[in-house]
Design the sequence.
């Protein structure tokens, strides 16, 4: 008589095995929907990489998600820096024990890239701005508008995107336009991207921009559903989707190959 353990062993030996691949982490909370969006786009990018060879669950990426609501204070990063940094440090330290690469589903919070790299964690941060610069260089785009929360678009000391100006010409919202954009991001967090006033205000903002390409450098902005005709003739570049594609490429590889 075969034991249950021997039966399970014989069954598992006949199952197709998932090949060893890099483990991916997503830090979210500013806001949590942005983490869901990044995960969903990672799954889509992973499926596209496999193409006809995709077998379903066994070929899905190994993903750990850690959502920390305190990170939502990043919208006013200059006033909340110390609290946000302590939270980010602890969150990154925790997730790095389970993954090989991780991303922060918030453009603003990528400001902490140098500090996180200096921690020497066992997982590597995939930086939003580094992914964007790589994309722009390969695509030949020379002029972009940068849309995001105030700490991002002012290109000052708190902006993860300061390096962008070394590579392309950057248009950013000014004055009242910048204030409306910052409030629009708060409205997406509160009412969702499908709220009619959110869509209308976003379309109006796009019409005011001069650059032919627009970086959606806030994880809330891609949550606003737009048709091609709503984009005012601009090329909208979803930074979340770019990062998702990079994460999928890393997840496709064995640990250490990236």
Sequence:
């Amino acid at each position: 008589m075969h034991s249950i353990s021997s039966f399970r062993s014989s069954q598992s030996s006949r199952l197709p095995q998932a090949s060893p691949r890099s483990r991916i982490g997503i830090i979210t909370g500013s806001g949590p929907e942005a983490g869901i969006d990044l995960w969903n786009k990672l799954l889509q990018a992973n499926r596209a990489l496999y193409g006809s060879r995709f077998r379903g669950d066994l070929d899905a990426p190994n993903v750990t998600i850690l959502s920390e609501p305190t990170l939502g204070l990043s919208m006013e990063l200059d006033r909340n820096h110390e609290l946000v940094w302590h939270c980010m440090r602890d969150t990154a330290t925790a997730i790095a024990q389970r993954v090989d690469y991780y991303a922060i589903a918030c453009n603003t919070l990528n400001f902490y890239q140098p500090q996180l790299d200096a921690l020497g964690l066992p997982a590597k941060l995939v930086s939003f701005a580094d992914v964007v610069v790589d994309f722009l260089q390969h695509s030949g785009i020379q002029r972009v508008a940068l849309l995001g929360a105030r700490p991002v678009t002012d290109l000052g000391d708190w902006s993860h995107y300061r390096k962008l100006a070394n590579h392309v010409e950057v248009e950013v919202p000014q004055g009242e336009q910048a204030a409306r954009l910052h409030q629009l991001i708060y409205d997406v967090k509160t009412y969702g991207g499908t709220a009619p006033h959110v869509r209308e205000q976003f379309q109006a903002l796009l019409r005011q921009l001069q650059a032919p390409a627009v970086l959606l450098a806030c994880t809330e902005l891609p949550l606003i559903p737009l048709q091609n005709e709503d984009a005012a003739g601009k090329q909208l570049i979803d930074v979340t989707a770019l990062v998702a594609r990079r994460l999928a490429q890393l997840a496709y590889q064995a640990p250490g190959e990236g």
The longest strand covers residues 24-28. The first helix runs from residue 4 to 14. The beta strands are 24-28, 63-67, 101-104, 124-125, 143-147, 169-171, 213-216, 235-238.
